[in-house]
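Why should sequence recovery work at all? Because a backbone constrains its sequence more than one might expect. Tight turns favour small or flexible residues, buried strands favour hydrophobic ones, and helices have their own preferences. The token representation captures these environments compactly. In the example below, the structure is given first.
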């Protein structure tokens, strides 16, 4: 099944959700609960993150993706990182993806493990052709405000173009809180002849700690309306959470109105977030 069917994308953006495999070894029950909350919302796909860092969920990405596909009849995208990988470990990952009937993969570099000098797979662009040649539908990450290690916006676009030229057929963005950054980025992509569909990753802020962590991790700009909300609800976590979800809903509706190819909600495994976002998009549309 095509993730981005051109005729459908022309009439409405795709809607998708990101989840991470529940921590702990193969916690299938929690995965089923999360999937059971998301699948009835009718997403075009659900993506499942990958942790190479020994976080306890390395192997469960594909397990969770398979559960979602088989038990909830929902298309999945499994994430896969390559920093520190070798040709034989990637070959084993490909076998595992196939064994789990996964057809769509988001190819990422991931974090470079301390003390490791990447050799065979330095960048995501080195992983993409291996997966595409193996028959997967391959996506890649895109950074509307530039990757945290990449200062020059022009170079950011050049690196993205390399990933598309290497075989990435769809792009999922890093979170951003100001849609204007995305609109300018989309123009730069078009100028650079990057035509792969770009789905916009939106993460609602739920707490001050979470937003601080995200901003320092990925370098996203905090617009003043968010800073004002953080100040207003400093001592009222429930209202701050509600304000964060409402802000994300407004971003998503604005992106749909501006013709985004896809809307991707970082659900953080909270089905209520996905539900609120889906309702806002459907009500507006
Ligand atoms: P790349 O595209 O390889 O880029 C990494 C850096 O190298 C960038 O600064 C880039 O500008 C630079 N670069 C690229 N090509 C070249 C070149 N030819 N020469 C010099 N420099 C170059 N991480 C996880 O661990 N698990 C996940 O499941 C996960 N999911 C994600 C999903 C999305 C949608 C996004 C946006 C990120 C995700 N990440 C995940 C985080 C990601 O692994 C990090 O952002 C990582 O630092 C970069 O990954 P990448 O695939 O974009 O790398």
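From this structural description, the recovered sequence reads:
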């Amino acid at each position: 099944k095509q993730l981005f069917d051109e005729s459908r994308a022309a009439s409405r953006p795709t809607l998708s959700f990101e989840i991470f495999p529940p921590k702990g070894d193969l916690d299938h029950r929690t995965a089923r609960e999360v999937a059971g909350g998301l699948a009835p919302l009718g997403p075009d796909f659900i993506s499942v993150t990958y942790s190479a860092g020994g976080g306890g969920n390395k192997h469960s990405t594909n397990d969770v993706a398979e559960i979602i596909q088989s038990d909830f009849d929902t298309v999945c995208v499994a994430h896969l990182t390559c920093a520190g990988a070798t040709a034989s470990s990637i070959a084993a990952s490909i076998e595992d993806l196939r064994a789990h009937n996964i057809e769509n993969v988001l190819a990422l570099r991931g974090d470079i493990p301390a003390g490791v000098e990447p050799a065979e797979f330095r960048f995501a662009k080195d992983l993409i052709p291996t997966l595409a040649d193996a028959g997967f539908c391959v996506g890649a990450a895109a950074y509307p405000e530039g990757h945290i290690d990449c200062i020059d916006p022009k170079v950011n676009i050049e690196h993205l173009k390399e990933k598309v030229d290497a075989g990435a057929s769809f792009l999922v963005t890093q979170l951003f809180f100001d849609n204007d950054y995305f609109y300018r980025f989309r123009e730069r992509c078009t100028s650079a002849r990057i035509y792969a569909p770009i789905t916009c990753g939106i993460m609602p802020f739920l707490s001050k700690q979470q937003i601080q962590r995200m901003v320092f991790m990925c370098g996203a700009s905090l617009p003043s309306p968010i800073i004002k909300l953080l100040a207003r609800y400093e001592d009222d976590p429930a209202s701050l959470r509600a304000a964060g979800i409402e802000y994300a809903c407004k971003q998503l509706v604005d992106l749909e109105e501006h013709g985004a190819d896809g809307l991707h909600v970082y659900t953080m495994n909270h089905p209520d977030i996905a539900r609120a976002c889906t309702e806002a998009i459907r009500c507006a549309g």
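A few observations help interpret the result. The chain has a mean pLDDT of 93.
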